[in-house]
Design brief:
Layout (H helix, E strand, L loop, with lengths): L7 H36 L6 H25 L7 H33 L7 H21 L4
Helix pairs in contact: 1-2, 1-4, 2-3, 3-4
């Protein structure tokens, strides 16, 4: 099956939709991150690395959110089998693992421990860096299909 080549306008609209999903994903991820920091702070556990745990929990849950909405609104894989959807989800987790876990935690360490930026601001800075990278990885790999 050959895929129709997108016009520049279609690609721009797709990127804008991806951006809208990205904004909602950022909000969801941030809320989960702050809630996790709050819970760990009140439990007085893992305080030294609480932001790493919060990043990880936010990553796991927000990727599910992002996958659902990117599939429905941006890359539409309607009519694909469960196997293909699962493969796309796995690819999405792998592509987001770079920005959502590796890059995010390295940058968080830099922002928080080196530059002394608030651990509540660091995830927002990380999102600005990660969204364009995620678009490229999702467009050309995770949602590529067969």
């Amino acid at each position: 099956m050959t895929e129709k080549k997108q016009t520049k306008m279609e690609l721009l609209i797709q990127f804008i939709k991806f951006g809208i999903v990205g904004v909602t994903n950022t909000v969801v991820s941030y809320v989960i991150n702050v809630a996790t920091l709050f819970l760990l702070g009140h439990a007085h556990i893992f305080q030294r690395w609480d932001y790493i745990i919060a990043n990880t929990v936010a990553f796991i849950l927000s990727v599910l959110w992002s996958f659902y909405w990117n599939n429905k609104l941006v890359f539409n894989m309607e009519g694909t089998s469960w196997k293909e959807l699962l493969q796309a989800l796995i690819k999405m987790y792998l592509s987001y693992a770079f920005t959502g876990i590796i890059l995010s935690n390295v940058l968080s360490y830099l922002w928080i421990d080196v530059l002394h930026i608030s651990k509540y601001i660091a995830p927002l800075i990380n999102s600005i860096i990660g969204v364009p990278i995620n678009f490229v990885l999702n467009k050309f790999w995770a949602f590529q299909g067969k």
